[in-house]
Specification:
The complex is a heterotrimer of chains A (324), B (345) and C (146).
Chain A lengths: L1 H12 L5 E6 L8 E5 L21 H5 L6 E5 L1 H12 L8 E6 L7 H6 L5 E5 L9 E6 L2 E6 L6 H4 L11 E3 L12 H7 L3 H12 L7 H5 L25 H14 L9 H5 L7 H15 L26 H4 L2
Chain B lengths: L1 E4 L3 H11 L1 E8 L2 E6 L25 E10 L2 E6 L7 E7 H14 L6 H9 E6 L24 E6 L2 E6 L2 H10 L4 E2 L3 H18 L15 H5 L3 H5 L8 H5 L6 E8 L2 E8 L19 H19 L11 H5 L6 H14 L1
Parallel strand pairs in B: 2-6, 6-7, 7-8
Antiparallel strand pairs in B: 1-9, 1-10, 2-3, 4-5, 4-12, 8-9, 11-12
Chain C lengths: L11 E6 L3 H10 L8 E6 L7 H9 L4 E6 L10 H18 L7 E5 L5 H18 L13
Parallel strand pairs in C: 1-2, 1-3, 3-4
Helix pairs in contact in C: 1-4
Classes of the chains: A alpha/beta (324), B alpha+beta (345), C alpha/beta (146).
Chain lengths: 324, 345, 146
């Protein structure tokens, strides 16, 4: 982390960048927030640890409109999103100085608390430099410890890899955190009967409170005006009146990012109700891979996206019933 | 004071549900929220905070107002019925109960919101003391006692027992109807007192409990409104509505129409000041930037509301926004940012 | 024959492209070929105009089945519209299947302007399928039921 801060100071001092986009330490051990730093003085609050899960690439849409360059800290998975935004002309590559930061898996405070840990006073082992594999958590109800992997975000268990897709320089080491297959959960649902599938999604989606956090956090959801924000749109934007609303919202949202979603996992991370929203996106990714050839959105900036492309031999829609 | 063994609680719920609707914290797909009790519902009284507050029981996220129906050439208007059935909300916490007080001032002052008023009339609140408050709690700041919920009935769990004490007439009536399951316990008072002391001790250890709200009041309007601090604070905000929807005191709503073929239903649903179409009018929107929208939320809670309600804040320190904000922004950080700014001057 | 089921009158929406399938429906009519009146045709400029939201919206408002018809691949009036539509619908139908909606409720058929017979046969078989599936309860809005 100190290396990052030093580099940020240098870049600010020599005028390469006008500001730094990173994370600011919070007032609890686990709540740093995304923040801009404009002076050396500001950087005293800079932090980069296991709780810096937020994907900063979407903030670059706004930062691209500002005067001067912005140094942005991107984790390996965030760089896919950034590439995708370049491809869609939503960010200006020239306005970004990308520091690819190392990552050893990001932590999910909800998941940690779900393990019966409450009244947290301090957390040891979340620093990026810590070698230990356990988190020592001091609470007012006593000390607890869990393995780092047990506290990790879902997306880190199916990590796409340690490589930054785009960067100006790299700082820090990354660690392999993958211990599950990305499409396993999707395949499990596919194998269910229609009744079971319906019951599963019904119970998950009925939790939705239509707060739009998934949409607003999503780097692929970068439309200036979302279709769900239109007041001419008959289906309400904010009410959960009927079970249909949530299905409509989540299917269409996933569809709108199909072929553009890099599977960064922000939607599931930010959902206050813990809905596994990545299951929608991954279903599309899995289908695209199977039907139209493997495709990883954000791996490059110039390939054609699967839904703006076609071949004469594409499968007919009736394949859905035939695949079983 | 009455008591009942915790293991007999399901019998208690069953008995309450015979005469009244019963809402209590239920775990569905891994998350605990207030929901109607049923025999196979997974009741979860251990989770300190439900994701959403219990506000839904009195002010649902969406509710119908009336329906216009068309049959042939005839049109009819059917107003939605007001709540007629008595109901019980079991397991609210002291902060959520205080939240109702905030809502009351909005919905029960003139002109009275009849839908809300009917629910308040028919609802009996059984509130539970917080035995293990967490680091995100700061109810004490707003004069809420986590150990002494001020509702119709207060309950405490000590060991394997649940102690039950009616505080109002409504609470007495509920107690009367389920008394057969309780045993009278003279020593209960002492046990509960000891537990309260315990809770108070924990509360003292929590980092947010002694947050100072100095300078936040109805008179601070222009000073706070014009502060440059907002420009810095709002930046990470995603403009989602999480904080408003989990909040026990946010009371803004929107009224919308839904066209369903030959009928139109008018309903209201929670709105969020974080949304770009909040209070959208024919002339456009009166808050055009996210900074203004972000500022609105906190100014409302800590300045505008106290200005209109004898200094009462419309935050109760439940800490849900602290837990749920995707980018870790919250009201505590806002208050602290203003303190720090004061220090630098 | 499922048509004896008096209780259930399905609502079926057919999105037909202006250039082929709609003309195919016309031909079916002028050739006196029959297809059930449960099918409501919505004419679109091209199958590619069919936004996935149209399909969901139709279900929301009470449709029991939605079928999309367009020119045969290779014959699109706009050269390539139906190729894009094909990918979109494949993914959407797969998603609907994934969340537990019976996959017979949605269909894509390519019907040319000369295929009046195919149009009529397609609609007949689709309606029959919807009769066998019964009412759509998984994707509708309750408020549209009354």
């Amino acid at each position: 982390m100190q290396e990052l801060i030093n580099r940020a100071k240098e870049l600010l001092a020599d005028g390469t960048v006008a500001r730094v986009l990173g994370w600011k330490a919070g007032d609890l051990p686990y709540n740093p927030e995304p923040a801009y730093f404009e002076t050396e003085e500001d950087l005293k609050d800079f932090v980069y640890n296991g709780f810096c899960g937020a994907n900063l690439s979407k903030y670059m849409i706004e930062a691209s409109k500002l005067e001067g360059k912005t140094m942005v800290c991107l984790k390996p998975c965030d760089t896919y999103s950034f590439n995708q935004l370049i491809k869609e002309h939503r960010v200006d590559r020239e306005k970004a100085y990308i520091v690819g930061v190392g990552c050893k898996g990001k932590l999910d405070i909800e998941r940690i608390k779900k393990q019966g840990i409450k009244g947290i006073e301090s957390i040891e082992g979340a620093e990026i430099t810590d070698e230990a594999d356990t988190l020592k958590i001091q609470t007012i109800y006593g000390e607890k410890s869990i393995s780092y992997a047990d506290g990790m975000l879902e997306r880190c268990h199916v990590c796409k890899g340690k490589d930054h897709m785009i960067f100006d320089e790299q700082i820090g080491e990354s660690k392999e955190t993958k211990d599950a297959e990305r499409f396993d959960e999707v395949a499990k649902i596919e194998a269910m009967s229609p009744e079971e599938k319906f019951a599963y999604f019904r119970s998950e989606l009925s939790k939705c409170i239509r707060c739009n956090a998934c949409r607003n956090a999503c780097p692929a959801c970068s439309c200036r005006k979302c279709v769900f924000d239109s007041n001419k749109f008959d289906s309400s934007q904010k009410a959960n009146v009927d079970s249909f609303e949530e299905k409509m919202f989540h299917i269409i949202r996933a569809f709108h990012v199909a072929g553009r979603c890099t599977d960064c996992g922000e939607c599931s991370r930010v959902c206050p109700q813990g809905i596994p929203l990545h299951l929608f996106n991954r279903k599309f990714i899995k289908d695209i891979d199977e039907l139209y050839g493997e495709y990883q959105a954000g791996a490059d900036t110039d390939s054609k996206a699967p839904l703006t492309n076609y071949t004469f031999e594409d499968a007919e829609p009736s394949i859905v019933g035939k695949r079983g | 004071m009455y008591k009942i063994a915790k293991e007999n609680l399901s019998a208690l719920f069953q008995l309450i549900a015979e005469t009244r609707e019963l809402y209590l914290p239920v775990k569905t797909a891994g998350q605990t929220n207030f929901a109607a009790w049923s025999e196979d519902a997974e009741v979860d009284l251990d989770t300190l905070k439900t994701v959403k507050s219990a506000k839904d029981a009195f002010f649902p996220q969406s509710e119908g107002l009336y329906t216009v129906k068309k049959e042939g050439k005839k049109m009819s208007i059917e107003p939605e019925r007001l709540k007629e059935q008595d109901f019980v909300v079991f397991g609210m916490k002291a902060c959520d109960v205080k939240g109702l007080e905030v809502l009351d001032k909005v919905f029960l002052s003139d002109p009275v919101d009849t839908f809300y008023a009917a629910r308040r009339d028919h609802g009996t609140v059984v509130a539970m003391a917080c035995h293990e408050p967490e680091e995100t709690c700061f109810c004490k700041v707003f004069g809420v006692d986590a150990a002494n919920p001020a509702s119709d009935v207060a309950v405490w769990t000590v060991g394997d027992e649940l102690y039950w004490k009616a505080l109002t007439e409504k609470g007495e009536a509920l107690t009367e109807s389920v008394k057969e399951l309780f045993t009278e316990d003279g020593a209960g008072e002492a046990a509960v007192e000891a537990e309260k002391e315990n809770i108070h001790k924990i509360v003292e250890k929590l980092p947010y409990m002694n947050l100072s709200l100095e300078g936040w009041n109805g008179d601070a309007l222009s000073e706070k409104f014009d502060s440059p601090v907002w420009e810095e604070l709002y930046k990470p905000c995603l403009a989602c509505g999480t904080c408003t929807f989990v909040c026990p005191t946010c009371q803004c709503y929107d009224i919308k129409d839904y066209t369903a073929g030959n009928s139109v239903s008018r309903y209201r649903c929670w709105d969020s000041c974080m949304y770009s179409d909040f209070t959208m009018m024919a002339h456009g929107n009166n808050r055009t930037s996210q900074m203004q929208r972000f500022r609105q939320r906190f100014m409302h809670k800590l300045v505008y509301y106290p200005a209109n309600n004898d200094g009462m804040y419309s935050c109760v320190g439940c800490g849900r926004c602290v837990e749920k904000c995707p980018q870790a922004l919250n009201i505590v950080k806002v208050v602290k940012a203003f303190q720090n700014q004061g220090g630098e001057k | 024959m499922p048509l004896e089921n008096k209780e259930f009158k399905p609502k079926i929406v057919a999105f037909c492209c202006n250039w082929c399938s709609y003309a195919g429906a016309d031909l079916a009519g002028s050739s006196r070929l029959t297809y059930p009146a449960d099918v409501k045709i919505i004419r679109v400029p091209c199958s590619c105009r069919v936004n996935p939201m149209f399909i969901l919206r139709a279900f929301e408002k009470g449709a029991d089945g939605v079928i999309m018809c367009g020119c045969h691949p290779g014959d699109c009036h706009y050269s390539t519209g139906n190729y894009y539509a094909r990918r979109r619908m494949t993914l959407l139908f797969s998603m609907l299947d994934y969340i537990g909606v019976e996959n017979g409720r949605t269909r894509v058929e390519w019907v040319s302007a000369a295929e009046g017979v195919k149009f009529s046969e397609t609609m007949n078989s689709f309606v029959e399928k919807i009769y066998s599936l019964g009412e759509n309860v998984r994707l509708g809005d309750l408020r549209c039921k009354s």
